[in-house]
Amino acid sequence: MRFLLNLLWAIFGGGFISALEYLLAGLLCCLTIVGIPFGVQCFKLAGVALFPFGKDITNTRGSAIGFAFNVLWLVFAGIWIFLSHLVLAVPLAVSIIGIPFAFQHVKLAVLALAPFGVDVREKL
Q1: Domain spans of the chain, in order of start
Q2: 3-state secondary structure of 32
Q3: What whole-number distance in Å separates Cα of residue 88 and Cα of residue 13?
């Protein structure tokens, strides 16, 4: 079931486009040494954006550096990514078929607010 939902997500739910955007942003961030931690988070978000069904997102114990990076991320990118996922979730939530995809966009929106200190794992 996860495979089918992930396939439909990648084609119709905006997963492929979102993952591609995260990958490009991650590559741009990794061009500078300072941007590498932000690029790594973009790659993490790209993996979740491409195949979100069957992923479990848990908060790990954060550090002061992670908090500072989350604040920088929130100011420069997090708000815009959050809003874009919400804009994509609203029309999907209108139809019954799109509700699972809307939930995934909301999950990605929350993850996009503060990706540092978050662990993404496969559900068992």
Answers
A1: 2-118
A2: coil
A3: 9
pLDDT higher than threshold 90 for residue 1: no
| pLDDT for 97 | 87
Structure tokens at 27: 């590559």
Give per-residue burial for 28-64: e unless 16+ CB within 10 Å, then b: ebbeeeeeebbbebbbbbbebbbbbbebeeeeeeeee
Helix, coil or strand: residue 80: helix
Give, for 57, the enclosing helix (H) or strand (E): strand 55-59
Helices (H) and strands (E) in the chain, counts: 6, 2
Predicted confidence (pLDDT) per residue in 37-86, tens digit: 999 999 999 999 999 998 888 888 778 888 999 999 999 888 999 999 99
- Cβ distance 54 to 122 under 8 Å? yes
Biggest alpha carbon distance in the chain? Answer: 45
